[in-house]
Amino acid sequence: MTRKFFVGGNWKMNGDFASVDGIVTFLNQSADNASVDVVVAPPAPYLAYAKSHLKAGVLVAAQNCYKVPKGAFTGEISPAMIKDLGLEWVILGHSERRHVFGETDALIAEKTVHALESGIKVIFCIGEKLEEREAGQTKDVNFRQLQAIVDKGVSWDNIVVAYEPVWAIGTGKTASPEQAQEVHEWIREFLKEKVSPAVADSTRIIYGGSVTADNAAELGKKADIDGFLVGGASLKPDFVKIINARS
Ligand SMILES: O=C[C@H](O)COP(=O)(O)O
Fold first, then answer.
1. Which UniProt keywords apply (predicted)?
2. Which letter, b or e, does each residue of 37-61 get, where b requires 16 or more Cβ atoms within 10 Å of its Cβ?
3. Quick one: pLDDT at residue 177?
4. d(Cα 219, Cα 81) in Å, to the nearest integer?
5. Ligand 1 mean position, distance from CA 118 (Å)
């Protein structure tokens, strides 16, 4: 099957109205590319503004959400709120949520189930730390993180898996196309064995970690790399080159 290329831009905790306007301008001025799904994730205070100013071809995602629709959970946002803003996507399991904020596989799985049940699609992030890679645990860590949602029996139609080796995030140390392809192939095999061949074939597995306009084309040539989740480079006009890396 042909999987549609998917490019996400995770703005993380960056920006103000002036810089959001700048990003919106270069995205709106870019030529439409019907062969790529483009989804950007501004910080929560700018979600509605970005949604109302971006052209229709650029979708907006939240960077996080909680596991219940509403209640006494100070500081959290729910999938119901994301939906109320007219948005379709959320990023869950990002390594910064896992390792800075201590989110566990179990919590991320609960959040993923609730987002999907609420009608929000999930960019589900996984990835090993440097010490785990060096200890030969890359496969185990990524499989364990995936298994947490396999165990919940989720429907995979609305999930994009983002493989983001923690050692490559924001460090300038991109995984080589071969390193990334190796793990993406393992992930696809895992989905084939644990879920189904059809899900393995149709699920988009995107790569994140120091993706730039200079390395995106080579990464994007690999058979199991179906797009990117871009951090720092998604804040700059070169993001448009990454969107078009495979075109
Ligand atoms: O969500 C995006 C990733 O954390 C990658 O960030 P980066 O492109 O700045 O390395």
1. Gluconeogenesis, Glycolysis, Isomerase
2. bbbbbbbbebbeebbebbeebbbbb
3. 97
4. 35
5. 26
Residue 8: name the closest of 118, 149, 161 by CA. Answer: 161
Closest by CA to 62, choosing from 95, 39, 38, is 39
DSSP H or E stretch at residue 144:
helix 138-150
- Among 14, 125, 169, which is best to mutate for testing ligand 1, by the most ligand atoms less than 8 A from CB? 169
- Residues in the chain with pLDDT values less than 70: 1
CA-CA distances (angstroms) from residue 150 to 80, 143, 156, 198?
Answer: 23, 10, 9, 15
Looking at residue 246, its pLDDT comes to 93
Ligand 1 binding pocket, CB closer than 6 Å: 10, 94, 164, 169-170, 208-211, 229-233
Please give the positions annotated as active site: 94, 164
Half-sphere exposure of 213 (CA within 13 A, CB side): 10
